[in-house]
Amino acid sequence: MFLSTVSIAESNWIIKNRRQVITLLVLFIVLLFFSVLSIGMGPVSIAPSVVLKILVSKLGLIELNDTFSQFSAIVFSIRLPRIIMAILVGATLAISGAALQGLFRNPLADPTLIGVSSGSALAAAAVIILGGSFTALLPNFIASMLLPISAFSGGLIATWLVYIISTQYGRTSVTTMLLAGIAINALAAAGIGYLIFTANDTQIRDITFWTLGSIGGSVWNTVFKTAPFLSLSIIGLSLLSRQMNLMLLGETAAKHLGMNTERIKKLVILLAALGIGTAVSVSGIIGFVGLVVPHLLRLFIGPDHRFLMPGSILLGALLLLSADFFARMVAIPAELPIGIVTATIGAPFFLWLLIRNRSTAEYL
Amino acid sequence: MIKVDDISVKLPSKKVLVHGVSLIVKPGTVTAIVGKNGAGKSSLLKAICGDIKKTKGEIYFEDQPISNIDISDLAKKRAVMSQKTTIDFSFTAQEIVALGRNPFWGTVTSTEDERIVLKCMEKADVIHLKDQTFTTLSGGEQQRIHFARALAQIWNSVEKKEPSYLLLDEPLASLDVTHQHEMMQVLRFLSAHQVGILIVVHDLNLAAQYSDQVHILKDGKTVVFGSPFEVFTEKIIAQAFDYPVSIIPHPKIRCPLIIASGSPT
User: Fold this and answer.
1) Alpha helices in chain B (DSSP H)
2) pLDDT at position A7
3) Does B115 or A149 have the greater pLDDT score?
4) Which of A8, A124, A182, B161 is deepest in the core (most CB within 10 A)?
5) Rounded mean pLDDT, A142-154
6) Chain B interface test: which of A257, A263, A308 (most B C-beta within 10 Å)
7) Phi-psi region of A29 (alpha: psi -120 to 50; beta: other; left: phi over 0)
8) How far is B36 from chain A (nearest CA, A)?
């Protein structure tokens, strides 16, 4: 009796939200499909069916014949870590973008536009250039974590600054938010400029990599080091979906609806900065994913964060996977930095948003 | 009951917004706060619901200092409808109203939530807007949707006739005359279901017609507190608003009728 009422309520819920549920399912299937396809693509191309066989063989279910085992090494040591990194970084950037937009109650808040990414990149650049002598003194484990930790701190400081500058009495001024972002971006660029001035050639190449963005350096070691933080940020932010919906009403209204706004705000800033900082430390500045993905999703499934957050994870992963695919394939055997690809898509998208909404000043 | 005991609100700039005001909101009554622009009506309401800090006095919610009560418990018994709530995201009207069910999240079924949301949208006369995008609606329609959201928040208590509270800051501001009266009638319906209502209004006749108690403020201080017949006298109103009025008995219902007349004194 009890069970049947619950399942009726659930099936009603699915029918009512079928558009959202179907969109999420389709995204999930396309992501799986494209991941397999993407593993197969590269200087050595491997058929999707072979990729599947190789992946399944790892589970011990089937035996590989000799012709396939040479591909197995390519799949496992080169392609798979990179694909996993693309999925995690894309998901993190997109869901952090959605979360920041909820926090600022503004659909234009993007980690790159408001300076969070460049704050992280400045901190990362400082570690690369100034950290050399310093890290030698630290225990191995901490030394290897210094880069993500400082990128996280840089992102945290930038987010916090933009938030306190642009928000008064629980209301965020869009103009101030974007202008504060410009200032922080400029400051970070100046900081990176100073660092480059003192750097040697290898360091300059490293820094350039940071500012253009790439996931080409991904090996299992990077995946293991960053996946826990990226996953924490992704899962943590998705669990705040209901609270993010309330935040859109404004802080006082959310408080009257029983939400501890101060705690939620701090959590969102911490988790978003953790995600973006870690992503920047491993892949540099990959812009506009956090802007484009939630926007496109809102067009299809509306602003409800209970669908928007999981949707951002899937579409963010898909977008970065495609951008990486393009970056790898367009100039074989050379690789395009992936940040260039996302900016090429994202910046015109941003302009389009501005043009579309300039009369109403509503952004979605 | 909500008991406001001698509260003051002073800005850091030493400007006094509310000066030693006391009042009581009992379940089952409608209390109106009226006064000139800048008399401190909204500041008083905001101080009572905790949006701005009081600098003196105490507020008791059912005999407990309000600051001792967990905000999630408070939200189950008290809804607040603020003056301006802007939203930049394209929620539907029904989704906005459903946010009012948040305090009961996980304790009632989604079917029950939806029944209450639709019921409250009917009460606020916005049921026909339920699938429309909130941001595309007029100011008055948005106002009524926020009203429905506040109703949805306390509706469990309303149906059980258990004490609950509704605080409204100028909810009638952008409504047409029909909807103004309809909203006041819903407030009367709520008060018959054990809701204690505190409302900031501008229209003195709406206050006279629908409230049990009227609190007149001037310069942050209480001028007078009492039933409509007690407080709506020509002398008191002229003093509180610095403007002469005539007051006659309402021709159709038992309440005073206030008519602004002539030039300022």
Assistant:
1) 41-49, 71-77, 93-99, 110-123, 139-160, 177-191, 204-210, 228-231, 234-241
2) 60
3) B115
4) A124
5) 82
6) A257
7) alpha
8) 25
Question: Which one of A249, A264, A307, A360 would you mutate to disrupt binding with B, by most B Cβ within 10 Å of its Cβ?
Answer: A249
Distance between alpha carbon B217 and the CA centroid of its chain, in Å? 15
Which H or E element spans position A274? Answer: helix A261-283
Nearest by CB to residue B88, choosing from A12, A105, A245, is: A105
pLDDT beyond 70 at A6: no
Q: Residue holding tokens 């901490």? A: A142
Q: Which of B49, B73, B111 sits opposite A9 (nearest CB)?
A: B111
> How far apart, in whole angstroms, are the C-alpha atoms of residue B226 and residue A272?
53
Q: Give how far A352 is from chain B: nearest CA, Å.
A: 18
Please state, for a pLDDT cut of 90, what percent of chain A lies above it.
27
**HSE toward the beta carbon, residue A193, CA cutoff 13 A:** 6
Are A337 and A327 in contact, with CB atoms under 8 Å apart?
A: yes
Mean pLDDT of chain A: 84
Q: Quick check: A303 and B105 CB within 8 A?
A: no
For residues A29-46, average pLDDT? 88
A232-257 exposure pattern, b = at least 16 Cβ within 10 A, e = fewer: ebbebbbebbbbbbbbbbbbbbbbbb
DSSP, res B15: -
pLDDT tens digits for range A49-83:
888 888 887 777 676 666 677 788 888 888 899 99
Interface test with A, best of B89, B133, B135 (most A CBs within 10 A): B89
pLDDT at A136: 67
Cβ-based contacts of B109 with chain A (< 8 Å):
5-6, 9
| A83 and A35 Cβ atoms separated by less than 8 Å | yes
Flag the least confident range among A186-200, A217-231, A346-360, B70-84: A346-360
Instruction: Please report, for residues A104, A248, A287, A328, B86, the alpha-carbon distance to residue A170 in angstroms, rounded to integers and kept in the order given.
Output: 9, 11, 27, 44, 12
Average predicted confidence (pLDDT) for chain B: 91
Q: What is the pLDDT of residues A169-180, one digit of tens each?
A: 666 677 788 888
